[in-house]
Every structure is written in structure tokens, then in C-alpha cells.
Amino acid sequence: MTATAPELPEVTLGDEFGKELDRIRAEIIAARGADDARYIRTVIAVHRGLEAGGRVALAVSLFPPAWVAGTTLLSLAKILENMELGHNILHGQWDWMGDPAIHSTTWEWDFLTPAEAWKHTHNHLHHTWTNVVDRDRDLGYVAFRMSADQAWHPRHLAQPFYNFLLAPLFEWGIALYDLEPDVVAAGRKPWRSFLNDVRGFLAKATRQIAKDYMVFPLLAGPSALPCLLGNLTANTVRNLWTHTIIFCGHFPGDVQTFTEEHIENETRGEWYLRQVQGSANIEGGRLFHILSGNLGHQIEHHAFPDLPSNRYAEIAPRVRALCEKHNIPYITGPLWRQYGSTWGRILRFAVPVG
Prior knowledge:
Oligomer: single chain
Distance between the termini: 58 Å
Strand content: under 5%
Low-confidence stretches: 1-11
Radius of gyration: 22 Å
Shape: globular
Number of helices: 14
Order of helices and strands: HHHHHHHHHHEHHHEH
Largest sheet: 2 strands, parallel
């Protein structure tokens, strides 16, 4: 009697794709070294120089040229700190250096939401459950309907207005969102935890408001009012830029969303597929990518959130080639196109159609 050969497990697209991305990840981890450390320390030094120059110029900002120069420098400093430093350091991208000054457990960024609260909602919830309806709260930030699988409510008719309002106040919106009031209302978060988070937010907000709208304006003496207005402008510019990059990396029209059925028994390879299909890249030059925290490479960031951000440009052509090889959509385009597509999505799902 001839023995029957055991049936081999089916090799899926996700398995193949995942193994190839794992190889890229392993190569980058093995190659991290002095050049990467030099990059992040240079960015920190540039940020400190921009902030110092901006603060000094705003201290004498009764003179209009000083106000323009100071506000510009401070705006660039806040963008750089928020995007390329804060966001990426808090992802643990530089923990491998063992430097306590550039570590995800010690860095507190120049942003209203406390680092620990943001790491919970962003690093854990969003990056684990990317674009899964009812699991990823970043899918519309609770306020927006961004998928046909989300229930429509009359309030969604106003979501274009919400978006206009959110953009200049983005850090306030994110800070309040990270408190998870909707999770508390649903009974999935204890009131005690919520109140602890509120105390943390109030403490952080008090420090931020005091720094930008009291301490530095008072130090400016006769230039107190223009200094305060310069700080307000710099924070608003940072908020507008951050909102634009984040929304254009997550919500263009071709970005896919998923239901919980899609992720049942999800393998690592299928997780990679979801990250790639649930993100969009933004094309631009080197300076654009640095000021966007290299989140113009949003697809690569979602596939490898803890790899050094300066490596995404190196990885991107390889990831794109793999997507083409496996016939997987790789969504990319210039900022203006992704911005228009994002607004198209916001408008489309504001009305009760699927």
C-alpha cells in the first residue's frame, strides 16, 4: 500500500509578501549604526538652533523684520520637533542607541497631549488596528465618517466644517481625543483612569500655555505682545502642517478600510498587507520629507513603525517594487493630489451613502 503524502499548507500572498518585508526589516536593523545616530543628533541640534534663534528674534519683535524672522524660525522648530523628533522618538525608533536623552520612555514633546497618552492611542491602538472599523479610533478620530462600514449620523453632514476647525487647533483636538471620552461613555474605560488622564493633560497643557503665552512674552518685555502673537502663529502653523501630513497619509480616497471579519486569524503577512493598503505616501524632496517626519513615506512607516525614519527613503523603492511584483496597490502622489483626494473622501462620506 502506498502512503499518502501529507497535504502541504497553502502559501498565501500575505505569507510571501510578509517574508519579503521581514527580510527588509532585518537588513535595516542589522545596518543601523553611526550614520543613523549622527542623523538624529544633527536634527536635534538644528531644532535647538532654530528654536533659540526664533526665541531671540521674538524677544525684540517690536521690529517687524524680527517678528517675521522669529516666527518663521520658531514655526520650523516646532514642526521639526513634532514630526521628525517627537513622533519618531516616541515610536522607539532610536531606542537601540541606548541614549536616555533620545529614548521613547524619556522624551516629552512640545505638544499638548502627554507622551504616554499619545503612545497608547497612536502606537498601540492605531498601528495595531490600522483602518479597522470600530477598532482603530484614528479612522476619522471619532468625529469623522471615513468608510462606508461606519454608521452614518446627521452630525456627519458637518464634517467638512469640523475639518476646517480641527486643522488650526490640531494639537487640542488630539489631546482631547487621547483622553478617550467616547471609550469612557461606552463603558470600556474606567472613570478613575479617565480622571487620571485628565489630570495629566491639564498639567501638560498648563506647562505648554505658560511657556509660550506667559514666560517667553514676559521675558520679551516691550515686545511681549508681538512675541505672544509670534508663538501663537508658530503653534498654528505647526498644527496646520501636522494635520495636513497626517490626513494626507491616512485618508486619500484609494486608501482601504477593513472590518473585524477581515482581521480574524490575521497572520503577520496579512497585517503587512493591511498596513500597506491602509496608508498613502506623499511625494516630495528631501527637505519636505524631513519636515514631515518622513511620514511622506507613510506606507513604509506603517510597515516598519520602529525603524529609523531616515531609512524610509531607502526602503521605499524596495517596498514599491514588492507591491508591483505582487500586484498590490501602492498609493502615492504629490501633496496637492493627496490633499484633494482626502477632502473628496471627507465630503463623500459626509452624506448617507456607501
